[in-house]
Amino acid sequence: MKNYKAIGKIGEGTFSEVMKMQSLRDGNYYACKQMKQRFESIEQVNSLREIQALRRLNPHPNILTLHEVVFDRKSGSLALICELMDMNIYELIRGRRYPLSEKKIMHYMYQLCKSLDHIHRNGIFHRDVKPENILIKQDVLKLGDFGSCRSVYSKQPYTEYISTRWYRAPECLLTDGFYTYKMDLWSAGCVFYEIASLQPLFPGANELDQISKIHDVIGTPAQKTLTKFKQSRAMNFDFPFKKGSGIPLLTTNLSPQCLSLLHAMVAYDPDERIAAHQALQHPYFQEQRKTEKRALGSHRKVCFSEHPVAPEPLSNSWQISKESRKQPQKTDLKMETISLGEQRERAPQSEPVAVHTPSLTSTA
């Protein structure tokens, strides 16, 4: 980390802490995610799902950009140097007296659905979509913290206790790890409601209370849905029948299209839940699609009217600095290895997934 100066602490989690850093090379500010786990080799670093996911998903306007990976072989420390954002969604809405405008909510949710569509198309699901992991900078939204992500091609069952409880989908609560990328849409729906109302939708105190709160709002699921869940868990699903009060309309200015999309995202049965690519085509986002189309048209006109210019190389793109390391090595990247989000869990074997491996550069 000799090329960076620490400015201050941004936050801390179970497996890492995030610092604001200034680069001594270009003077720019970055967010540094310093891992608490110690690593034995560059091979182990390259095997981290979070690093592999960010390499596969970047660049994308709604995915946090990874600028550099700094591994100190001598101490075993690892840091991810990412772009610095202004705040997360939780910080944006915390303490607000009045909700954001529906236009602003629509703008943020469209970008969140764009990020989910991108990661799902690339064979990854996030598994921890929540306000703290959704970052904002000048009205641009980016999904971050891929420490719990997983390949959609990996073999079930997955870890049961994934995702933060309030945003955990029913299939994560009621099965022994048999869930899919659709869990991200449930979590995004919970975030959707929270942005619009400034209140969490299902603030359960524990797992049983979480299920109870879901049933209080959207009712006990149909028997066919419970039967599907029962096939993968030996537990009693004798839930008392609840009709459900419906999603609380704490804000009365939400459009019917907004409520329609919200209901589609928090459908109890994942097979009936909307996918990200479908959400992007929902009538709620009609204005967003028009704006995007106009912007794309203007961009094309500018591109064709000017002389072609060779693109500049990405600054620090996919650099990995291996301090205290003499011999550079290249490694094959595999998706299913130990994740920081599940520190001691060994991932089961998965179908092979092609991963683009950017070139690595070394510094002494």
TrEMBL record:
Its cofactor is Mg(2+). ATP binds at K33. Residues 4-285 form the Protein kinase domain. It is found in: Cell projection, Cilium; Cytoplasm; Nucleus. It is an enzyme of class 2 (transferase). Residues 322-335 have a biased composition (Basic and acidic residues). Pfam families: Pkinase. Keywords: ATP-binding, Cell projection, Cytoplasm, Kinase, Magnesium, Metal-binding, Nucleotide-binding, Nucleus, Phosphoprotein, Serine/threonine-protein kinase, Transferase. GO terms for cellular component: cilium; cytoplasm; nucleus. Residues 314-364 are annotated as: Disordered. Its EC number is 2.7.11.22. Its main location: other. It catalyses: L-threonyl-[protein] + ATP = O-phospho-L-threonyl-[protein] + ADP + H(+); L-seryl-[protein] + ATP = O-phospho-L-seryl-[protein] + ADP + H(+). GO terms for molecular function: ATP binding; cyclin-dependent protein serine/threonine kinase activity; metal ion binding. Belongs to the protein kinase superfamily. CMGC Ser/Thr protein kinase family. CDC2/CDKX subfamily. PANTHER family: MITOGEN-ACTIVATED PROTEIN KINASE (PTHR24055). Able to phosphorylate several exogenous substrates and to undergo autophosphorylation. Negatively regulates cilium length in a cAMP and mTORC1 signaling-dependent manner. This is MAPK/MAK/MRK overlapping kinase. It comes from Sapajus apella (Brown-capped capuchin). The lineage of its organism: Eukaryota, Metazoa, Chordata, Craniata, Vertebrata. The gene is MOK.
